[in-house]
Amino acid sequence: MLGVVTPCSLASLSNPSTSSLEHLSLIDNQLPSLISTIELERLIHLRSLSLEFCDFTSDMCRLLACGDRAPLHRLSLLLNGAALDVKPLDGTTTEDDWKALVRRSTNLRVYIMAMDVCSQDLLRVLKPSVPLERIHLDSYSMLVTDGVVELISQQYHKTLSHFILMRDDAGFPDLSVNRNEDPLVLLAWRCVHLAVLIIHGYTVWSHNLVAISRLRGSNLKVLEVSEESIDFDPDQSVYIEGDPVHNLVKEVSLGLGRVWHPSMDNSVVLNEPTQHFHREMQSFSAGM
């Protein structure tokens, strides 16, 4: 279990207590940040840290990269687009900061959850040197573009294992419009460690879903796509006999090497994304 602290409780801890602390969660939606860089200096054996992305400053990153500290193994970052007006991205980690941190913490893996963040801000956040293992893009109105998915599949093809793309809106945008290759298929092809793929609120063409299952096979441990997100190409249905849904289930099951069905309800939609972040963060940190 991660240690959850407030500024008062952390300040009251003795130096021996803080120096032995290995897991720390600082998600509290407070302004200003829950912890100062000076206070973080005492946590010399910190191995797992969770906080809001806007609180992960250049100064904090450089401190964590110092050679007199234990290497950081897990970093969970929550980015809330609704809070960017009061907690902007200015002053957050740069590409050089990430490079320095990764040089010191060679086993570092990062989990990012972004809620209602526009693609322009996501492109600012997703630096090439981030050792991104898990990313969850969740929104009510903001649209994640194909360019963001393309960037993720290109930059993090060696580290990404979990990709969750959610949108709780009536429309189901198609990321493959005006593209020769579907970005989700490219993600499955490029990301050699991809084990979890969850999609709701974006159009997933049936033939692309089959392609994803064949590319990842049994290595894709979780494939959750809501039934209402799946669409069928009318041109292809001419050449396929029988019920298209039945054929899709059969082909995807064959590709994965196990029985598969689309999600039949909205259970994949998260009513409390922040609580989901806390659960995922604890699971992520426990896997060190």
Topology (SSEs and partners):
Blueprint: E1 3-4, H1 7-12, H2 15-20, E2 23-26, H3 37-40, E3 48-52, H4 58-64, E4 74-80, H5 95-104, E5 109-115, H6 119-125, E6 132-139, H7 146-155, E7 162-167, H8 183-190, E8 196-200, E9 204-205, H9 206-216, E10 222-225, E11 230-231, H10 234-237, H11 244-256, H12 273-286
Parallel strand pairs: 1-2, 2-3, 3-4, 4-5, 5-6, 6-7, 7-8, 8-10, 9-11
GO biological process, one term: positive regulation of protein ubiquitination
Protein name: F-box protein 33
Give an overview in words:
The protein is α/β, with parallel strands linked by helices. It folds into 2 domains: 20-70 and 82-107, no CATH class; 109-287, Leucine-rich repeat, LRR (right-handed beta-alpha superhelix), CATH 3.80.10.10. The chain has 12 helices and 11 strands. The strands form 2 sheets. The chain has a 9-stranded parallel beta sheet, with helices on one face. A two-stranded parallel ribbon has the order 9-11. Strand 5 (109-115), helix 6 and strand 6 form a beta-alpha-beta unit. The protein starts with a strand and ends with a helix. The model has no long low-confidence stretch (mean pLDDT 87).
